[in-house]
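FW: tagging you since you asked about this chain on Friday. Here's the raw sequence from the shared folder, copied in full. Didn't touch anything.
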Amino acid sequence: MPTTDTPEAGLSVTRRRLLSFVGWGSFAAFWGSIVLATLRFFFPRILYEPSPLFQAGKPGDYQAGEVSTRFKDAQRVWMIRNHDGMYALIAICTHLGCTPNWFANEDRFKCPCHGSNFLIDGTNVAGPAPVPLFRAAISLDVQGNIMVDKSQRENQPGKRDKPPFFLPLPPAGHGTA
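HL: got it, structure written out here
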């Protein structure tokens, strides 16, 4: 009499065995994804941005009438000194957030995205930008270094021309500036 206990008979896949593998595999995948999602919760995605407060050198580092682009890439800020003082203009277009460029030969900031134009004081004069560029708060620390705080912003002409958004300085060559 032939035996049915051949090695091939034990390895055959039956419908019941296949459904058991699929069932247990689905169960393991479900609980594995729950565990992974729980572990992922404890390691949130964090966007590390530069501090909104940074040191921008001394007032003597800046010439009257010039726009310093030293902090444009790292902090998205232009430092501007005029004959009365200094201010920090935030380099973010008020239309859609692009970074405008300074064109010294035209005395204008121009946004490459949609063509907004701004004067050296941040006033919008052309394009779709609805309001002027923002100024950041600016002050001197005890060592005489310029401190810029981008978390404090103002773009209204009456308010932006006074401290803390404008740093009055004596004219160059008269005192500590």
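FW: The helical segments are 7-11, 15-41, 72-75, 157-160.
HL: agreed, and The CA atoms of residues 85 and 168 lie 4 Å apart.
FW: great, closing this out.
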